[in-house]
Amino acid sequence: MSTTTAAISQPIDHGMIVEKDVKIPLRDGGYLYADIFRPDSATEKFPAIANITVYNKDKLWIPPSDLEEEANPYMNWEAANPMWWVPRGYVCVRIDSRGTGKSPGRCEPSSYQESVDFYDCIEWLAKQEWCSGNLGTLGISYHAACQWRLANLNPPSLKAIIPWEGRADQYRDQAYHGGIFSMGFLGNWINQHMARHLLGRTRKYNPDSFSPDMLWQYLSHDLDSEWWRMCSARWDQIKVPVYTVGNWGGWGLHLRGNTEAYLCAASKHKKLRIHTGDHFRPFHSNEGKVDQLRFFDYWLKGMQNGIMDEPPIKLEIRTGGSKKPYAFRFENEWPLARTQWTKMYFSIENERSPDEEHAEGRLVTEQVTTARQISYSGSNPNKAGIGSGSSAPGIGRSGISFVTDPMAYDTEITGPLMANLWVSSTAEDMDVMVTLRNIDPDGKEVFELGQQGQPVVLTKGWLRASHRKLDPQKSLPYRPYHAHNERLWLEPDVPVECQIEIISTCIVLKKGHQLRVDIHAQDSAGSGNFTHFHADYNEEAIHTFYAGGAMNSYILLPIIPS
């Protein structure tokens, strides 16, 4: 199946009107400022594509020279390019969120209030004389996450959304991976944006406006609750047509929300696309923009281009190690109906070693009859020793590893995964971090391209053992859903069974390659920006992993037959 340029809006050189700092009224008497880029026509009405941003609508993004879209004075980070969309008959609208850019008020990123404000903006835009009354939303990351919260409220004029690589569940996707605080990304993001408001150019518009207690709020709400649900997608309320777009390399932030949307959103009209590459090039690629345009042409302009008659799933199939895009394949459902759900059992066969390349055992297809256990340290000492007051990185290996036999033939793994592990600790809690890696016949790791252009592992999963309680109504055999609403503390050295959600992946393991699974107590290979706060439960604790006999630990793999 190929995407065609037939029956899509073609560029027309009718000029562009740029309206800066347009004042949009809100229901509570406040207002936001927006920039509007629209076709220069006194006779036609056009649909609009809107986004709301905390990144400052006036801040110019200067892209790298090899971007498929040429740089121009209207580029903005993670947002649609007016120079491409306006000639094709669309209005582009960028709105500064409260307390950011030029909009007054107190900035509360990713909040319910921002969703209500966005609703008011959508309905105000729909009534403008140049607007056809049909609105869509489009953008990457933050500009995607805000679309879920807007769609919860179902504004009448919102006709379609394209959340491109966007977290949806603020607790599970972003703040608390498996109940473990994602300190690396969140701490950096909050501090950077607070600094930009207090130390950058936006201070002259909004001094001291950025929410000063955002990090405290995230840390103090360390269990799931209505506080998190108010600022997350509510799948049963999302009825608008949605094209949800993820990135295989974005397992730390930009994939789970997109696959969950396709599984759970109440919308009758859904499409799912998962690609590779960095954070912005697929969005600005000609191929990516054609997908966006066809979807909006259908839902905002009523153009019968056949996009909703095509298979709803479009997946880039990774075959290992490429820095360029792989070929796409179309599918009819997610997970794939022909998936061969395969349990690979952990078999402990070797003593633990500090050697990073060492494997303590194998992954095998038959249940292991002999019960064994292996222990490892919950803390990873650094040159200052072990202590919660130290922020220095560890200097050793904090876990164990298992490998499959070399693949007898090319083997595709595509879909969601789950690890069912038996563990215990000498402490009242422990962190379990699972990493999947592709190892070539020479024993070298085959990395994929990450969203910041860095090498990344295949995927990861996380769980704090006290958060092992499942929500039985939302859990699926291949995707456990943890309640995160109470702590089930460990008893010293008493084994418990933990089902760990592993973020979806796609890889064709070539003949002779091995799948390696690491089980660690600390952030390990490939964590990158997504490091975690492991608390003091792990310090000086001894964690134990069990396999075989009555405690058969395994990983569930989605094998796709050739």
Overall description:
The protein has 562 residues and is an alpha/beta fold. It has two domains: 16-331, Alpha/Beta hydrolase fold, catalytic domain (Rossmann fold), CATH 3.40.50; 340-380 and 394-560, Jelly Rolls (Sandwich), CATH 2.60.120.260. The chain contains ten helices and 25 strands. The protein has helices at residues 82-85, 112-126, 142-153, 170-175, 183-199, 214-220, 226-229, 256-264, 281-284, 286-301; strands at residues 16-25, 31-39, 46-53, 91-96, 131-140, 158-164, 176-177, 180-181, 242-247, 270-275, 313-316, 328-331, 340-348, 361-364, 372-377, 399-403, 411-425, 431-439, 448-449, 455-456, 459-464, 496-509, 514-520, 542-547, 554-560. Strands 13, 14, 15, 16, 17, 18, 21, 22, 23, 24 and 25 form an eleven-stranded mixed β-sheet that branches. It has a ten-stranded mixed β-sheet with strand order 1-2-4-3-5-6-9-10-11-12, sandwiched between helices. Strands 7-8 form a two-stranded antiparallel sheet. Strand 7 and strand 8 (180-181) form a beta hairpin. The longest helix has 17 residues, at 183-199. The protein is globular, with a radius of gyration of 24 Å. The two termini are 18 Å apart.
